[in-house]
Amino acid sequence: MAKKVFVFFPDGVGLRNFAFTNFKTIGEQMGFDITYWNNTVFSIKDNLDFKELKIEDHTTHPLLPYYSRARKRIELNRSREKFNDEVYPTYKFPFNYKGVKNTFKSLFTKALIGRYNSEQGLLKLRQKINELERSTSKYKYCKAQLETHKPDLIFCTTQRATQSISALLAAQDLGIPTVAFVYSWDNVPKAMQVVETDYYCVWSDLMKEELLKYYPFVREDQVFVTGTPQFEPHYDEALKQTREEFFELYGLDTDKKYICYSGDDKTTSPLDQYYLEDLAHAVRSLNTKGYNLGIIYRKCPVDFTSRYDAVIKANKDIIKVLDPLWQQVGSQWNQVLPTPEDFNMLYNVCEHSEMVTNVCSSTVFDFVTHDKPCIYYNYEQPQLKKGIRDIGQNYKYVHFRSMPSDQAAVFCTDKKDLEGLVKQILDGKLSNVEEGKQWFQIVAGEKPCDASRAIWETIDSVLK
């Protein structure tokens, strides 16, 4: 009899990896009965015609946001002390004291931090969060669903969503095995391990080491290295369009060579529009020297600002906007969901661009799978002032320490050097592709094209 697996979406971030790739097809070929246990506003049944069980009760305990924020800050405090490293406080968002409500939230969270700020306190705090979530109507609702449908295993598509806590507790209290996928390459050091499950799937040996380092209550035999489905589409040559097809589809000039500018969210790069402007100036200058270049601007899918508009308008003759094919189904960042068509677009943007430039984005890995270099901007803009975050701190984060060398990306540390770096790459005299691929293997594992199968094999071994 086929084993029944619930693929659990506490929010929309896992859709790209686990609904729009071949993940379901591979699981079914291996004999699994798959139901998507869906906590999102996106209808998997209506849009993809997959078997779906909707979670209609989204209640969390009113105190959960306070306890969750306190947990994260305490974990970062403990990491700073344990590893004698000042990088961890830089992951914290500042407290907000604007208005009575925000002041109360901040003071209450600080009181919780004072009470639980120790290793033992942290364990008690996690237990308290579980106690709060077991008292909610959502816990009872999810437990009733599980008792009715009787899945053999729950696979949670991200470890970072507080919406998943009550549902996973319900499963565990019923004796149903739970497996969580660690969603992103930077999540573990940033204290984003919200859920506790029986097993974990991680991208690489590096991420496994991190999980065991930061969460000593996790045992080694609970962690499986599987890779991530995130990059699998780059190995699917069926997505490839010819240069002529792609350029015609998006109105690009076949006489030009294009550089991709991959935008960032406002938190990561608050002055991101000025780096796009710098690239436009470099391209204009190179075009006067015999090059024929354009820019493909692909924005961050969750950036709703108008901050790039003036730069794009002023350079509309060289900047072509190719917005990601994502669908906004709500007002929150995790309610902007990818579409399957975006895989095709991203594949061909990588394939038909000469390089990508951005601020510290993981698109470096998307592009090296297509043998394309990446320039990271790492200089301050003159518009930087007090209260605006300097992008330089991004490169000090723990996940950037995974670079095998500083040649794993081409770093532009001075605006004056940008044109020269672009020129060297175009002329074939500079590239980070070889070192970038080494970095990609460190971060994403040895077989990034086989992650979906590896996850199903892990699920199979857990069930056995």
From TrEMBL:
Protein name, per record: CDP-glycerol glycerophosphotransferase family protein
Source organism of this protein record: Pseudotamlana agarivorans
